[in-house]
């Protein structure tokens, strides 16, 4: 199967054990970038273990901990094997997925075999699990000193009563102490089944060769088919938990972040993509560099060009963030609220909306310069049942009327929270 | 990849580097205006791109500029400051989508150029200076920007280590200058300075994307036709004797200690030994294969990150890691031991070959990214080196363990900086 877009062709194949693989060849490139990703992130903290039916609640931060431990093999650390090939390898965990990756210019085939092998081979020992707690503790400490991360964590704690998106992806220094070998295996066996994963390769490769190599590797891995994983999320009210959260850190001036909780949730695929595009366009019209609001706040010295906004839309939750450093967080909040109210009163400008759509189309095309952007966006959308190749089509389809409607439903001040980091002393 | 860019000099002495390729979805234009890094001019230089970005004669405000960019399918446009060795560089760039991907409106390149030119050469003025309100607002933004380095403890610890280490050298000047020097800047003296900069600084312009090289040259020669008299930028001082190891400790209310250690290597890009030096750096702290990653992180679980990196124009090496406050001495001992081991030739085949392959991989990867390609060539221009990525790789191939040991012998620890808790 293949799909064409802006001079790129996407190839696709599904294997007998349920694994799906996608290849986007980039002939002029030197590099190959590959990701192997599972739909398992920090919010999957309670689930039913397939087969046994056991209902399990796991310590916060375990998906991320598991990501670290996957690099351990019976023969040692798989980082070392990649290094011998001159390949750089890494991984990341976010709220909804865990993704392993490599990039190479010389040893693609060996690297891909290695990626498949290590992600498909769990190997955890008590000693190495204990040792990892030291490394991850330092990773968490690093984030404790990161004001941008802290201001976001606090905002999510304010927006959500119970949903696990309010917990740090890495967990806490205390929660990770509770992680053990047995639970790691249970999480692995639940979420690292091929039917819950996707492989994406882009760069200097030929699709048929990639598929053949995967086939060769996967043919001996007979796995029992697995039903849809039962993920358990607590009942989350439409209301927010708190209107504001404040904390103090060693910073030079306050850092401000405002967010709205999305309550139109529960769907994925096309609907989710349309909602994401609509909401992002709205934010751009309201607060983008070409907006009157941005100009006014900048000239008043309330924001600078590090001011930013974004929308995150997942199946079970969604929120936007708006903010940056400011000398006066209270005034900035009032100004932002005032400006949203004004647009709600006067209505959206059709001209602004159409212009911003053009910008988003260009930004999407620009992204295709970067193999990392292509692969990481692909898997992120894939886990929400969206094909990234549909993006330009839906962008064109989103109407001014839909955006106008969303303006009133999404920017509901009852579901707005503010998080601020103030300087210590 | 061969020598990628065609170099031509415009009639007024500006260098134009063009490369026509359909590899990328965009056309990137980058201008670099070089200054010598000096206390008296650093803050003025730093302020310039931000004031210019605020508006020009034909595009009188940021908002007008941004609306225009959105119409050009979200072209990226910006200006900033780079510091490479003892050189401060004003950078302006515009990146436009290749018109063929959005329906053959090939005016995008010309319209992008129109903005680029106007912002650089035709700024918004009043009286005998820049528009006053823009200068005052940007002074305020720059002040906050300088202060906000403090928020990012990772970068802060690295910058502070370099500052302490190079106290008496221009290299200690922060790329955005200093808050105290901001006071005396006003719209008139900044405008005067701007004119001097444009007429006397070396300027390099890069164009990368699907373009007609001949046409591009003619366009630029027409646009950038003003009179210039270029001055020379003095060479960065690389060699300096270290009398004794310095230790600097600073206390803040933080949860993790940040350790930065600065070394002098006496070797910079352009020296014969440079390729041995980048191998040395890779073996020490250039990735998961390196001695720092293996020993500080994997064996002792002291840190989440532990790496070393080079400032290749000044010939400095910096080791950095985030650790528990109580582990300072232990970590320093381990780091010192790794350097001593390399000096004594204790480099395994695994460490050596992995370092070589990792370096080659990253140089080849750089050729897939427009900003990386341009950045590598700019480093070459600054250091008087003209070589392609393949030539660099060939030189890395030839480095032996003996070369690494020899270059390691020149590496001297200068300053240990530690950000501790209060």
Question: What's the short version?
Answer:
The complex is a heterodimer of chains A (425) and B (422). Chain A is of the alpha+beta class and 425 residues long.
Number of strands of chain B: 13
Strand order across the largest sheet of chain A: 1-2-3-11-4-10-9
What structural class do you assign from the helix and strand content of chain A? alpha+beta
Instruction: Say how many strands of chain A there are.
Output: 16
Biggest sheet record of chain B = 6 strands, mixed
**Which chain pair shows the most residues in contact?**
A-B, 73 and 72 residues
Give an overview of the whole structure.
The complex is a heterodimer of chains A (425) and B (422). Chain A has helices spanning 62-70, 78-85, 108-119, 126-144, 147-159, 181-191, 207-218, 269-287, 292-299, 329-346, 350-367, 371-382, 391-397, 400-410; strands spanning 2-5, 8-14, 20-25, 32-38, 46-48, 55-57, 72-73, 76-77, 88-93, 98-104, 197-203, 244-249, 255-261, 308-313, 318-325, 416-423. By secondary structure, chain A is of the alpha+beta class. In chain A, a hairpin with a 4-residue loop joins β14 (308-313) and β15. In chain A, α8 (269-287) crosses α11 (350-367). Chain A starts with a strand and ends with a strand. By secondary structure, chain B is an alpha+beta fold. Helix content of chain B is 44%, strand content 22%. Chain B has a six-stranded mixed β-sheet, sandwiched between helices. Chain B has a five-stranded mixed β-sheet with strand order 9-13-10-12-11. The mean pLDDT of chain B is 96.
């Amino acid at each position: 199967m293949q799909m064409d877009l802006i001079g790129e062709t996407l190839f696709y194949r599904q294997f007998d054990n349920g694994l799906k693989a996608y290849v986007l060849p980039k002939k002029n490139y030197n590099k190959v970038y590959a990701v192997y990703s599972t739909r398992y992130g920090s919010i999957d903290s309670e689930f039913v273990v397939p087969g046994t039916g056991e209902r399990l609640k796991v310590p916060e931060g375990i998906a991320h901990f598991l990501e670290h431990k996957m690099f351990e093999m019976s023969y040692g650390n798989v980082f070392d094997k990649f290094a011998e090939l001159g390949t750089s390898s890494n991984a990341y965990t976010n709220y909804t997925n865990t993704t392993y990756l490599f990039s190479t210019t010389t040893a693609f085939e060996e690297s891909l075999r290695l990626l498949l092998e290590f992600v498909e081979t769990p190997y955890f020992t008590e000693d190495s699990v204990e040792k990892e707690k030291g490394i991850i503790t330092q990773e968490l400490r690093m984030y404790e000193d990161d004001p941008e991360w802290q201001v976001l964590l606090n905002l999510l704690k304010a927006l959500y009563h119970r949903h696990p998106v309010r917990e740090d992806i890495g967990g806490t220094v205390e929660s990770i102490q509770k992680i053990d070998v047995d639970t790691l295996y249970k999480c692995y066996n639940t979420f690292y089944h091929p039917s819950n994963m996707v492989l994406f390769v882009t760069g200097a490769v030929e699709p048929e060769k990639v598929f053949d190599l995967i086939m060769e590797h996967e043919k001996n891995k007979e796995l029992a088919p697995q039903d849809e994983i039962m993920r358990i999320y607590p009942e989350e009210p439409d209301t927010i938990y708190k209107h504001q959260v404040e904390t103090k850190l060693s910073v030079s001036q306050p850092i401000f972040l405002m967010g709205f909780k999305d309550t139109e949730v529960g769907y994925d695929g096309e609907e989710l993509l349309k909602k994401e595009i609509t909401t992002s366009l709205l934010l751009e019209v309201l607060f983008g560099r070409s907006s009157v609001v941005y100009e006014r706040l900048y000239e008043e010295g309330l924001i600078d060009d590090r001011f930013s906004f974004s929308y995150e839309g997942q199946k079970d939750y969604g929120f936007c963030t708006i903010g940056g450093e400011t000398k006066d967080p209270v005034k900035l909040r009032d100004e932002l609220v005032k400006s949203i109210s004004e647009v709600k009163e006067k209505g959206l400008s059709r001209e602004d909306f159409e212009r911003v759509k053009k910008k988003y189309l260009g930004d999407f095309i620009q992204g295709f310069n970067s193999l990392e952007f292509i692969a990481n966006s692909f898997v992120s959308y894939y886990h929400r049942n969206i094909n990234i190749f549909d993006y330009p089509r839906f962008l064109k389809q989103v109407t001014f009327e839909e955006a106008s409607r969303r303006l009133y439903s999404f920017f509901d001040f009852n579901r707005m929270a503010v998080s601020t980091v103030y300087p210590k002393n | 990849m061969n020598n990628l860019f065609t170099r031509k000099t415009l009639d007024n002495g500006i260098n134009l580097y063009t490369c026509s390729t359909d590899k990328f979805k965009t056309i990137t234009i980058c201008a670099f205006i070089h200054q010598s890094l000096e206390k008296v001019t650093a803050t003025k230089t730093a302020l310039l791109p931000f004031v210019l970005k605020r508006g020009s004669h034909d595009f009188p405000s940021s908002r007008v500029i941004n609306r225009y960019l959105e119409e050009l399918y979200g072209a990226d446009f910006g200006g900033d400051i780079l510091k490479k060795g003892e050189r401060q560089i004003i950078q302006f760039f515009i990146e436009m989508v290749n018109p063929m991907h959005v329906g053959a409106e090939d005016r995008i390149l010309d319209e992008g150029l129109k903005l680029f030119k106007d912002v650089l050469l035709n700024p918004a003025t009043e009286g005998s200076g820049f528009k006053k309100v823009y200068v005052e607002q940007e002074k305020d933004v720059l002040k906050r920007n300088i202060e906000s380095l403090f928020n990012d403890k990772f970068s802060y610890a690295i910058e502070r280590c370099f500052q302490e280490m190079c106290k008496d050298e221009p290299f200690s000047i922060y790329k955005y200058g200093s808050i105290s020097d901001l006071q005396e800047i006003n719209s008139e003296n900044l405008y005067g300075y701007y004119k001097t900069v444009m007429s006397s600084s070396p300027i390099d312009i890069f164009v990368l994307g699907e373009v007609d090289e001949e046409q591009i040259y003619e366009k630029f020669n027409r646009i950038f036709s003003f009179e210039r008299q270029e001055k020379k930028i003095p060479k960065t001082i690389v060699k300096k004797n270290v009398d004794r190891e310095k230790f600097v400790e600073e206390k803040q209310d933080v949860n993790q200690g940040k350790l930065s250690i600065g070394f002098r290597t006496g070797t910079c890009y352009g020296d014969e030994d440079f390729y041995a030096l980048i191998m040395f750096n890779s073996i020490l702290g250039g990735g998961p294969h390196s001695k720092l990653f293996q020993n500080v992180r994997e064996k002792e679980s002291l840190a989440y990150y532990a790496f070393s990196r080079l400032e290749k124009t000044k010939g400095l090496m910096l080791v950095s890691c985030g650790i528990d406050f109580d582990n300072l001495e232990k970590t320093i001992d381990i780091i010192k031991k790794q350097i001593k081991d390399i000096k004594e030739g204790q480099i395994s085949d695994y460490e050596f070959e992995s370092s070589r392959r990792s370096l080659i991989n990253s140089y080849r990867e750089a050729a897939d990214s427009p900003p990386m390609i341009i950045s590598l060539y700019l480093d070459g221009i600054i250091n008087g080196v003209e070589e392609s990525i393949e030539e660099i790789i060939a030189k890395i191939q030839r480095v032996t363990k003996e070369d690494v040991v020899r270059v390691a012998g020149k590496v001297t620890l200068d300053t240990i900086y530690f950000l501790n808790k209060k």
